Amino acid sequence: MKNQAKNSLEKLKNSIANDEEEHGTEKYKCAKCRDVTYILTDDGAVPCSCKDIREAERILAKSGISKEFANKTFDNFDYARNMQVFNSYNMARQYVKDFESIKDNRKNSVIFMGSVGGGKSHLSFAIANELMKNGVGVIYMGYRDSIMKIKQNVMNMDVYEKIMNRYKECKVLLIDDLFKGNITSSDINIIFEIVNYRYFNNLAMIISTEKCGSELLEIDEAIGSRILEMTKDYGIELKGRKLNYRIYDN
User: How many other β-carbons are positioned within 10 Å of the β-carbon of residue 6?
Assistant: First the structure.
C-alpha cells in the first residue's frame, strides 16, 4: 500500500511538472495547486484551500443551475420594491460581512422565510457567491431534487452516505426551497439527519423556504427549533402577496 501511494504521488508530481512546462501557470484557476486541489509536500499531499470551492462548482454544474446561480448577485437584486425586501437585502449583506466572525458559532446561519417571489433564492445565491469569492466552499442543495435523489439511493449505502455526507459535512450548505411540496416522514428524517449534524458541529447553512417559523416547528419541532436557533441573528420572514414581483411587476 505504501509503495502504491508513493507511485501515485510520483505520477501526480510528474504530471503537474509536465503540464506546467508545456502550458505555464496562467491557465489555472488556482496557481497554488494548478487545479489539482492538492498541494504537494515532502511528506505527501495536502488539500488546497480551493478544494471546497472546486467541489462546490462541480456539484453546481451537475445540478443544471450553475449559470443561474452565478448570475444572482447583490448588484442585480432589486431591493427597492418595498421595505421588507430592502430589509432582507441589508440582512444578507450584513451576514456576509459578519461571516468570518460567526462561522464557528452556533448562530452562524441565515434563513429567508415566507411569501413566494420575495427574492429569497436570489439573496441566498448572492450570499453564496460572495462567500465563494472569499474562498469559502458552499454546497447547493435544491430541496425537492436532492430529496428525491437521496431516497432513490436509500438501498445503496455507499451512494446514500456519499450524498448525505456531502450535505452534512461541507463548510456551508445552501438549502433552496426547504419543505417545498408534499412532505413525507422519510423527507423529515433525511432533513433531520442533515440539520442535526450541522447543528451539533456548528456548520453554517443558508436556507430559503416558503414556510414561516411556526410552520417549520409544526412540520418537525426538532428540525424547526435547531434551524431557528442557528438563524436567530440572521432570519427574516417576508409576508404578503404583493412581494411577488412575478405577479405584481409593473
Answer: 11
Choice among 63-72, 85-94, 129-138, 186-195 with the minimum mean pLDDT: 63-72
**CA separation for the pair 188, 182 (Å, rounded):** 11
> On the CB side of 241, how many CA atoms lie within 13 Å of its CA?
2
The amino acid at residue 167 is Y
Residue 164: Cβ within 10 Å count: 16
- Please give the residue that has the higher pLDDT: either 6 or 111: 111
Give the strand pairing for 235-238 and 110-114.
parallel
pLDDT tens digits for range 139-190: 999 999 999 999 999 999 999 999 999 999 999 999 999 999 999 999 999 9
- CA-closest candidate to residue 178, choices 121, 119, 96, 104: 121
Amino acid in position 108: N
Q: What's this model's pTM, rounded to 2 decimal places?
A: 0.77
Are 207 and 227 in contact by the 8 Å Cβ rule? The answer is: yes
Give the C-alpha distances (Å, rounded to integers) separating 193 from 10, 136, 202, 212.
Answer: 40, 23, 14, 21
If you search the block for the grid coordinates 440582512, which residue do you land on? 91
CA atoms within 13 A on the CB side of 174: 24
